[in-house]
Design a protein that fits this description.
The chain is an all-alpha fold. The chain has helices at about 1-15, 20-30, 40-75, 80-90, 100-115, 115-145, 150-185, 190-195. Keywords: Membrane, Transmembrane, Transmembrane helix.
């Protein structure tokens, strides 16, 4: 997950930032373009790891700003989500979704009771986080290439950003649905809950 969500977007951001003359000069002066010897490789890996964390942080804002605002208009059928929310309240007694939302509860439940299902769900979530970080990288690239009047690369970056946004949204939705379906399928208490409701 770290490799997918942090190192790869960090490396792409490093390459794009190298197109800015002042940053490129800084990279030259700090020998970040030198890859011979373990010290230079370690410096490069640490830098792209740190860049990856910043991208991950800014990308996480898309969950509130984009995904949460658009998901209900894109995926109108909320019956699965509503069913799981009711089941979570039945199991935990916690009705407040801000304190403990249904997806986090399902993730914790799968991790404890069905680790293999959790791993499958986590793979989809890792992919969604990778594309979420690529959205931020793409916006950065559009800004840099646009400011340098490189229309071709700015358009390609815009296209990659749009594709990454769609992929982030669909993979996030798939992982959330997989968590919900996993709990419904694997929980022995779900049948009792259905009978009582």
């Amino acid at each position: 997950m770290d490799i997918l969500s942090l190192f790869v977007p960090g490396a792409v951001a490093f390459a794009i930032l190298g197109r800015v003359p002042a940053i490129d000069q800084f990279f030259i002066e700090t020998h970040l373009y030198e890859y011979e010897g373990w010290v230079h490789v370690a410096k490069f890996l640490v830098l792209i790891y740190i860049l990856g964390h910043f991208l991950f942080f800014f990308g996480s804002l898309l969950d509130d700003w984009v995904y949460d605002k658009l998901k209900d208009s894109i995926w109108k059928n909320k019956s699965l989500q509503d069913m799981v929310v009711r089941f979570k309240i039945y199991q935990t007694g916690i009705a407040d979704g801000d304190t403990f939302n249904a997806f986090k509860w399902c993730s914790a439940w799968l991790l404890i009771h069905q680790p293999k299902l959790y791993e499958q769900m986590e793979r989809h979530m890792a992919e969604s986080k990778f594309f979420r970080s690529l959205v931020v990288v793409g916006l950065l690239a559009v800004a840099i290439f646009g400011s340098q009047s490189d229309v071709g690369l700015a358009l390609v970056s815009l296209l990659v950003t749009a594709f990454s946004l769609v992929r982030y949204m669909t993979q996030r939705k798939k992982s959330v649905d997989m968590a919900y379906q996993g709990v419904i399928t694997a929980s022995v208490d779900f049948k009792d809950f259905v009978n009582k409701s």
